[in-house]
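Bug #77: duplicate submission created two jobs. Keeping one. Sequence:
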Amino acid sequence: MKGHKSWEEKLNKVQDWKVVDGNKRYPGQMLIPTPKQVDAAVCEIPLGAVSTPALIRQVLAARCGADTTCPLCVGIFLRISAEAAAERSERGSLDVTPYWRVVDGKGRHYAKWPGGREGQDAILQAELGPLTLS
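Kept job's structure:
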């Protein structure tokens, strides 16, 4: 019996993105991205900023000439990106995708991602430094 693939292997799976016809809920042309495209979009979130899956989907769609990006794929690939980043971090790598900069539409971190909500909150706070009122 084969062992389970690591998150890094899932992230680096060689595949091509494609644009397909959408559906009633998402009309027009829909991008089916790759895990690496989603990971790269997360890496572009600047220090001190956060993004949401919806914004990431908009950016990816625009880059590939589509009207929208598959929300299911982006959700799955964001999790793969986060878990692969945690694997790299555990091995001591400093080249880690900043998954803690992705929050949901209500500004919350994801409970199922590495570190849970509290862990991701702590990483983001450490990255931002102490908040001061002026």
